[in-house]
């Protein structure tokens, strides 16, 4: 019987020795201690201590958890950017061996846009000549006091639309050429950095 009482007392003290102690700051700014952490302070952060009063575990407040999540998200974004840059660098150095090859690739990429611009400019000459002729005919009809026919007006509208579309094509291809030049200039500068050439 005495053995059982002794065993129970040992188990009870062992359980007490394992019990955690918590420290938290209440809403009035006072430091509080207890063997259980009130639920309201589980989100605002607290410290778990051993019997000697040393902090063995700390729970983060909601603000700390959000800041930690934001920091981890930023680290992940930076790491992803670095991986993307490393992949881009590998592609660059495996595709080209000299800056001259980069210039050649740039010129090939520009060629498509140059052809589109030249084609649009050639067509624009014919369309603009047709527009001038149509406008002249309409002016003569109106001067004579007659009504402009729907067929002639339709031709003018169509030629006007085509002229505007050709101008848009030229502008879009000129902008695309600028982007191509900028991309290959950046590739060339990065190639120099990576190869030391």
Describe the 3D structure.
With 197 residues, the chain is of the alpha+beta class. It contains 4 helices and 4 strands; from the N terminus they run αββββααα. It has helices at 2-18, 62-95, 99-143, 150-195, and strands at 21-25, 31-34, 46-49, 55-59. α3 (99-143) runs antiparallel to α4 (150-195). The termini are far apart. The model is unreliable at 1-17 (pLDDT under 50).
Care to give the gist of this entry?
With 197 residues, this protein is of the alpha+beta class.
What is the secondary structure topology, with strand pairs?
Layout: H1 2-18, E1 21-25, E2 31-34, E3 46-49, E4 55-59, H2 62-95, H3 99-143, H4 150-195
Antiparallel strand pairs: 1-2, 1-3, 3-4
Helix pairs in contact: 3-4
